Each structure stands twice: as structure tokens, then as C-alpha cells.
Amino acid sequence: MGYPGDRKAAGGRQAGPDAAAGLRRAAIAALVMLALGAVLSACTARPAARRAAPSPLAHVERVFVATERNLNAPGPLFGRKRPSGLKYLSLDISVPPTHKPGRIEWPDGPPDAATDFVVTDSRVYRDARAMTRAMQRDQPGKETLVFVHGYNTTFSDAIYRFAQIRSDFAVNGPGMVYVWPSAGDPRGYAYDRDSVLYSRNAFARVLERLIAAPGQRVLLVAHSMGAQLVMETLRQAALKGEQHLMARISGVVLISPDIDPDVFRRQAAVIGTLPQPFLIFVSKQDRALSLAGLLTGRKPRLGVIGEPGKLAGVKGVKVIDFTALADGEGLDHAVPITSPAAISVLRGLIAQAHGGAPAFDDSMVLKAAPAP
Which helix (DSSP H) or strand (DSSP E) does residue 191 occupy? Predict the structure, then answer.
């Protein structure tokens, strides 16, 4: 059985080679999309964050959130009109005493703070100023860690992931997750790529608010397609001459970035001097990015490049390869924040950097600890 392009076109004429090639590409893209949906549907459940009474044995992470999503309908958006208008809130997320690094313990039945991630309290702020004041009261500091989630992420996924990151990396200073309008559905790859472009202005407004007070800075940490949102927002700021914003970015970390390397080079060229440090965490066995590469033209994505030589001409970028620390969780698409071994190594590197010692080389290939 051949591809559709091997058959005669309507009207009895044989389709030409260009038309046949186009049909083959369309058929391959459709098959890859089906495979992507099937694989991610199997690996990414759609549970929702749920409230429960607190447990004295659990600890609570207060997660601050900026989002355009409708707070009354935080589930998947696939097939719906994108929401607009920024909202600001915080949620107290209880991390169970049984928590294992890298994992989100979703409830199998009724939520229980002794065994599951649960929401124990929440509050909505009237505007960004009110949220930043509350953040500084609860989590004082001059540098706000801003986490930007990736593709196929619901509101619940995003807030629980950030709570897990804060817990596993012992983040004590101010932190916020920006929840952009992902479809929250594996079929929504194209929808999410458009949502990234849709969200640039709103994300820039959030960053402006976070640096409004004298001396305030932001550290941007983005996963997967969220890296595209960060790079597009920085590119937009550079084009608009917003040097005050660029000067307040204390670093950028892109985890498994779902960006075409050619596009990244163009983005970096427009930005000019990249914020420092600028780290790219990669895993060459990232199965989600392998599928994304097929879907977008059979080109490797930035998150699987392996070495900085493939980013010739881009200055100030450090590439850290986490391949050896992968444990198969989540298609190995977020190894630095889901693999217990990777979290342990990364915490050590961060502590080393905070101590003033050089921690990240221009190119690093991390090794797994030898078996006992």
C-alpha cells in the first residue's frame, strides 16, 4: 500500500513529484502527530489539583502564580478560545512526608496530605502589585525565580511541578510560576506553539512588575516549549530597546528546550549579549523532543544538541548534558528536575556556584554515580 501521493490525482491525472512529496510529508506528519498523542497520552495523565486538610507531617510550599488562564476553568484548553487578562494568585501546596525527589505524588483516590500533593489554601490578588507585596512578605529576597512550564501542561501540572521544584531544590527566596495557555492536550502541539506567541506581551508585563522595585532581579527557568516563550520575550524586549528589563535578568536556564537551533541562533543574535549565566540543559535520549523533531521537519531540537559546537556564533552559552542521569521518567524530557540522581548532582553544582567556585563549564557531560 503506497502513500496517497502514489495514486492518481482527481480528474485522472498522475500527481507530480512535488505534489507526491508534499503528500508524503503530510502523511508522515500525521503519523508522527498520532504517535506523539498516543505516547504522551499514555505517559501524561490529566489529574487535577485537589484540596484537602493539611497534615502535620507534610510541609507546605506557597506557590505564587501569574496566568491568563480562567481560574474557574483551569483544565485542558484544547479546542477552546484562549483566555486573556492576567490574574495573580497564590496556592499553599502540601508536599507529603513520603515525597520522593523528582516525583509529583498524585492521589489515586480521595486526596490525603499524608501521601499526596494537595492544595490546602489559596488566595487571589487584585493586581500584580498586591501579589508582589505578598511574595516579598512570605519569601523575601532580591531575586525572583520565575518558572515557565512547557507543552501539554495543565494549570494543575504547572503549579504542582513548581512546588516539587521548590521542595526538591530547597528554594527559599521569592518564586513564581507563569502559567501560559497551553492546550493541556498532547494533540495540541500546534496550538501550544501559537500560544507561546500569544503570551509574549503578557509575560513581559509580568517581568516588568517583578523588577519594578529598586534592586529586584529575575532568574528565568523554562522547560520545553516554555523556553521558546522566554527567548521570544527577550528578543521582543531587545527589539523594543528595553534595556532596563534585560539588565535585571540575573540568569536563564533552559531545560530540554523545544526550539529549532537555527531559530535560537537568530533569537540570540537579536538579543545580543545574553543574560549570564545562560545554561542549556540537554538530554540526547529525550524521546519527546525526538518526536517533536520529526513533527517539525526531522531536525534535532535544541534540547538534544549535545555540544555547544552546534551553536557556533552564539556567545555566552553553557551546555550541560544530563543524558547519563536519565531514569526514563516522562520520556526523559525533564531529566534535571525529575531524575533523583540529576537533582542531587544539580543541587551540588548550584551550591558550588553559590559558594563562589566555578560550577558550570562551557560544555559539561554529567556522569552517573557508580553502582555500589
Answer: helix 189-198
